[in-house]
Amino acid sequence: MKLYSMPSSGNSYKVRLLLALLGRNAEILDVEYQTDALDRAKADGRLPFGKAPVLELDDGRLLPESDAILCFLGAGTDFVPTDPYVHAQMLSWMFWEQNQHEGTVAVRAALSFYPQRRHLATPERMAELLTSGHANLQIMENRLADHDWLAGDNMTLADICLYGYTHTAGERGGFDMSRFPGINHWIQRISALPGYKGLNE
Amino acid sequence: MKLYSMPSSGNSYKVRLLLALLGRNAEILDVEYQTDALDRAKADGRLPFGKAPVLELDDGRLLPESDAILCFLGAGTDFVPTDPYVHAQMLSWMFWEQNQHEGTVAVRAALSFYPQRRHLATPERMAELLTSGHANLQIMENRLADHDWLAGDNMTLADICLYGYTHTAGERGGFDMSRFPGINHWIQRISALPGYKGLNE
User: Fold this and answer.
1) Partner A contacted by B139 (CB < 8 A)
2) Which residue has the higher pLDDT, A139 or B201?
């Protein structure tokens, strides 16, 4: 198995984190933002939707989209609930992450983090993203204030998925994480897991 | 079962379409954009992420996110592949839809369609969304030019999911659908299915 992975991106990190927690190996092919390696992977047709991460199976078949890769690699493990409703709740958080959380929490961080994007970080846009990002983090806090995990009683792929961009939301995105004690405890729980690897490990 | 459903929204329509194709019934509760019914559903805590659609089970449990509802209702039907890789490909399209397609194709349509949002439809934004929406439609076309369905050899939830906003992309979004013959044939295939219901039916 190979993973086309963008080292700086939360979407790619999610997959590396799941592999680490499962004790599974994949050959990691770095395709950083604005590098030749990324351009080459695109030109060679290895990134079907034009983005990393992409999982390449041993027979060459490709699978794009971080959360679909989590579902593929996680199938049959303890991170995927067997109860149909809890399973669907896990997916609700994961679709919400791609639709709402990523477009606010991750985008604000990216506008600050990547020098090439700073011209898009107008004061109006950054203020809007601060408000909408805090509102999305509050939706997570509402759940995590009195539950250990996002869906059901155990850790699922939804927690790995949302950890990707949430654990750097303060440092990279400039969000005020002191408002979200439930999220902070949840981040501590995940980062203390056996096998855990950080974003830059 | 009850479905909190926004009549004008492709996300809510996807779920109504799946119910129709499966011959299943749910009580449809209309929560149109900027109506008292929507405000009431939010105030009553019936929309956990603040948006429609939401499925309410007979015991009162709630499930938000259109694509998670499709997965919940579709489990065990012919619309969900049993092969793990094709299943994951179906999810790739569905996550991509929430992350890329909806934020361009559906957003451009919404800015034109809802009078309350027209002040956001600046010429610059509409031009940007036209370019990015066409690029996303081209990704679908690349697949549908020589395949009947998005994932594997049979229709899956991915087709229902992407049909939601794609079938009105020309009329509502102003996209040039003459560029995409594969998509147009796929739209015809879906709208000819037994049990099919249109957006306004």
Assistant:
1) yes
2) A139
pLDDT at A169 over 90: yes
How many C-beta atoms surround the C-beta of residue A123 within 10 A?
7
List the single residue in B68, B89, B103 with the smallest CB-CB distance to A95: B68
Contacts of A70 (CB under 8 A, 6+ apart): A14, A15, A18, A94, A157, A160, A161
CATH architecture, range B84-191: Up-down Bundle (1.20)
Cis peptide bond upstream of B81, omega within 30 = no
ipTM surpasses cut 0.85: yes
* The token pair that represents B117 in the structure block: 């949002």
Domain A2-74, architecture per CATH: 3-Layer(aba) Sandwich (3.40)
Cβ distance of B75 and A89 shorter than 8 Å: no
Taking CB atoms and an 8 Å cutoff, what residues of chain B touch A63?
Answer: 85, 88-89, 92
Tell me which chain B residue has its CA closest to the CA of residue A75.
B84
Residue A21 to residue A191: CA distance in whole angstroms: 11
